[in-house]
Structure formats: C-alpha cells, structure tokens
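hey
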C-alpha cells in the first residue's frame, strides 16, 4: 500500500455509529510487482489486503494530496 486517503470517498448515508463506519470507502494505491509486464497502465484490477499476516500496520503512511 503506497497511499491511503485520509477522507472517505463515498458515504452511503449519514454515519452515526462506530459500527456503521465500516461502510465507508477509502481510495488507496498499491504497488505490485510487474516485472513480467503483464499489467498495463489504467488496467482495472482487484486487490486484497491480508491484514492477519502483515508484519506491521505502523508502516502505512496516511496522507491526502
């Protein structure tokens, strides 16, 4: 993960409870190994973040442009 937006991009409705906050969507950027050049700029894709096997969550920098 190279970028996590500090603000939600889309809020389905007014969020009042902590439980409802998980419905927020945040823009992120990820870096992937593309040494085989199979991925092209602008290609859509799905990414999954395995938080159970992360070495540390402290190394994710959160900032907004």
């Amino acid at each position: 993960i190279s970028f996590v937006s500090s603000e939600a991009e889309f809020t389905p409705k007014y969020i009042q409870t902590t439980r409802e906050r998980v419905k927020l969507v945040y823009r992120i950027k990820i870096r992937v190994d593309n040494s085989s050049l199979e991925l092209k700029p602008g290609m859509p894709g799905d990414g999954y973040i395995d938080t159970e096997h992360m070495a540390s969550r402290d190394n994710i920098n959160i900032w907004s442009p």
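The beta strands are 3-4, 28-29. Residues 33 and 39 are 9 Å apart (CA to CA).
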